[in-house]
Design a protein that fits this description.
Layout lengths: L1 H17 L1 H35 L2 H9 L3 H14 L4 H13 L4 H13 L5 H8 L1 H25 L5
Length: about 160
């Protein structure tokens, strides 16, 4: 992560040397957009934290193990779509869930929807991308996540 910060700093310095006025204008626009989204982002984090507090891990585990792998996959896809967790937390969480006996197919569904589908972030997305693009993107990525998890299930022999 430090490398990305360093590269970003170097690119910013190069831009500043090349054209200070345009760099200043770009930073000004970025700052305005950031402050516009900051309130929504903070509210989003509060709502997700509240949701994760109300849902105990044992109940989530029970649903993911569920009556069958396909049902667990759909539940995991729904949970992943509605949850907002960064990747550096999601992947270790998937490892812990696997140690608890959750199949790879279910984990793939959870992690791919978690990373690609954003029901919680939809209002922010629709304002930036437009409602049609945001809706189509989320639906297509949800279907792609399900196909990916089915592929993982086939590869690991979890499907008949």
């Amino acid at each position: 992560m430090k490398i990305l910060y360093i590269l970003t700093g170097i690119c910013l310095l190069i831009s500043l040397v090349a054209n200070p006025f345009k760099t200043y204008q770009a930073l000004k626009i970025a700052g305005k957009r950031f402050t516009k989204l900051l309130g929504e982002f903070a509210l989003l984090l509060i709502l997700v934290s509240l949701g994760l507090t109300l849902l105990p891990p044992r109940s989530i585990l029970g649903y993911l193990k569920g009556p069958g792998k396909l049902f667990g996959t759909l539940i995991a896809a729904a949970v992943g779509s509605f949850t907002f967790i960064p990747g550096f937390i999601a992947y270790p969480l998937a490892g812990i869930l696997h140690q608890q006996g959750i199949p790879y197919m279910v984990l793939a569904s959870f992690v791919t929807t978690l990373m690609m589908v954003g029901v919680v972030t939809f209002p922010m997305e629709q304002r930036i991308l437009g409602i049609r693009v945001a809706l189509v993107r989320n639906i297509l990525y949800f279907l792609l996540a399900l196909l990916t998890s089915l592929g993982i299930g086939l590869i690991f022999g979890e499907l008949p």
